[in-house]
Amino acid sequence: MGCVPSKVVVRRHLPGLGNPVVLASQTAFSVSEVQALYELFKSISSGVIDDGLINKEEFQLALFKNQKKENFFANRIFDVFDVDKKGVIDFGDFVRALNIFHPNAPHENKVNFSFKIYDLDNTGYIERQEVKQMVIALLFESEMRLTDEAVEAILDKTFSETDVNQDGKIDKEEWCNFVGRNPSLMKIMTLPYLKDITTTFPSFVFNSEVDEID
Amino acid sequence: RPPTMNAFELIATSQGLNLGKLFEK
User: What are phi and psi of A43, to 5 degrees?
Assistant: First the structure.
């Protein structure tokens, strides 16, 4: 009696968003930016099944507007984003992985992440057969045909430029030195879009952290 | 015959590694 407020503030339930404050504290993103990323996440994760998780087909669909198109590197990035190997990417995975691509993220993290993408078998080395697998997949998907000899020439050139100790595999230090000499290779590890994500997805203001008046 | 490229240069220009597409509406 008498203590029922005339206005009831209801926090809209956003399954999957988790705690944006915690995610912001773990990343280069502000709380608003985490909320804006949730708008992007919602749109990607509802591409095939609206379950609040991104599966491989949805990731593919978001990248290529075509879920039938298999792409080796899209699959690989998905697997690296899917830290716990659940077969799906939840919002936390999504934000923490994109954080590496933030323009303000430490360069060292970007170099380490790129190494992880290319270390297909997770052995701690980028091996010749892994590079060969990537090159062949890339050529196949680009419908380019090269002779075995030409592919081997690409591999020889690659290892002559990276594998300084000539043990037939690229270790982390060799990778750091190589990308240090070839900074253009790290361009793909930075997404300028992440700097103004709140302008790209302004609807977060309406959908997130809105106190509704009942 | 064109000069041989380094594999990582080839890979870095591949579309699958271009996550910018996620942000295109």
Answer: -70, -40
- Most A CBs within 10 Å: which of B1, B4, B18, B25, as the mutation test of the A interface? B4
**Do residues B4 and A157 touch, judged by C-beta distance below 8 A?**
yes
Task: Name every chain B residue with its beta carbon within 8 A of the beta carbon of A160.
Answer: none
A149-181: buried (b, 16+ CB within 10 Å) or exposed (e) per residue?
Answer: ebbebbbebbbebbbeeeeebbbeebbeebbee
- A37-49 pLDDT, tens per residue? 999 999 999 999 9
Strand locations in A86-164 (E): 88-89, 126-127
Q: Residue type at A85?
A: K
Nearest Cα neighbor of A170 from A114, A213, A209 is A114
- pLDDT at position A10 over 50: no
ipTM over 0.85: yes
Q: Tokens in use for A9?
A: 């503030």
Helix (H) or strand (E) holding A131: helix A128-141
Amino acid sitting at position A54: I
